[in-house]
Amino acid sequence: MAKGVETHIRAKIQPVAVQAKRQAKEAKQHLLLMLWSMRKRNPLLFWGGIISMSMAFGASVALFAPIWPNSNTFNQERQFTGQGFIKRRSPVDFWADASQYQISRPVNILVMGIDPPKNTTNHASGVFAGSSDTMLLVRLDPTNQSMKVLSIPKDSQVVIPEMGLEKISLANANGGPALAARVVSRTLNNVPIDRYVRITTNAFQELINALGGVEVFVPQQMSYVDATQKLEINLAAGWQTLDGDQAQQFARFRNSNVGDLERSQRQQMLLKAIRDRLTSPTVLPILPRLARSMQSHIDSNLSLIEMLAIVNFGITVEPQNFQMILVPGSLSPLSLDPSSYWLDGIGINQVMSEYFDVRPLGGMQASRRRSLTSLKIAVQNASGDPSLSDRVIKYLQERGFERVYTVSDWLDSQRQTEIVAQQGNLTAATDLQQILGLGIVEPTATGDLDSHLTIRIGQDWTQQQ
After folding, report:
1. What is the per-residue pLDDT across 171-181, written as a single tens digit (0 to 9) for each?
2. Which residues pair with 298 in a beta bridge?
């Protein structure tokens, strides 16, 4: 049982082996109803709800998974923090009022999408032994009721014990979640990692098919054929309803000029689309089928009580407090592998301090921020008026901005201007918003890859100017 659960209720909720199976069955039904009740209260249930629901249905998830102590020893069972993070508001019956479970402190969860090894069936024990195609560090923070998702590109160059400098995607394949968590923690200023979740890429497809597809804006024509990997991608630009296979194509389409970065951006777009789809009334009848289809694709050390607390936490998170960012770094065309992503230590210090409350290594203070006018600012026209890009650039240059440039238009016309915090600098994005006198700050990494901030011009610019 999680250490954060109050002592005086332990006798009520600590099941013996015989009771565990029965309560696990009841938990499935309870979580389904709870997720559906969340729909009207808050649409942000993807990270708060779907992860928890998926964990509860996972065949390999124990009802009360052990919570292991922190250790530097390379051991599968000694890589995650031992601190509990659950509290109860009152000593009531476990199932009668499971909403009483709450997160008592900030929690960091490593989420990995795993490519199963070749010739491994969906139900094989080694299905989670492959490389990670997706890696996210999710922070749930009850102190400010926020959720933060840090995307880590699979081609990020990191030091893996006994392997040397390698792509971070290889960590899980060579040491499971313990090694993956160890590598991520040490790469990101020793950020504590409390729990992990592993999901197979097959689960991604089955989830979207079970939802009846997801609606996504495809920013460009995507055509690609790789006979060796039996991969064929053919998606038209514009708004599309993608099935599981098409969504996988969308997520995996790769522009050789920018390596894995655009894939990380599109993965964020898909996560938002899935979250939106889960708020639809048509989802309720398919939840039992969804649960069955996800059962063999999930692995985690989250306990059932912790799942319930995460679900309940998701209810209270406001949209502006759901933030998705990309770990700072850049590509190097001079590298032996041009797709390799080289992490930016200064940028990591800033992001880990601002988003994860982790100080730079060695006790050093976070690096001083660059002045706003020296940042690289991309201007992307999404207004439908081709003249606005030049007007915005002139407006900024007159106010001392030195590194402003245009990028290709965003094909989906927008009413409201967005200031995209591409590298997670929300302070700079907010300051720029005040200078423009309009727009909203978008805490995602969906802007121009070479920018610090991206201004996506909306129709409101014409109205105000």
Report:
1. 999 999 999 99
2. 199
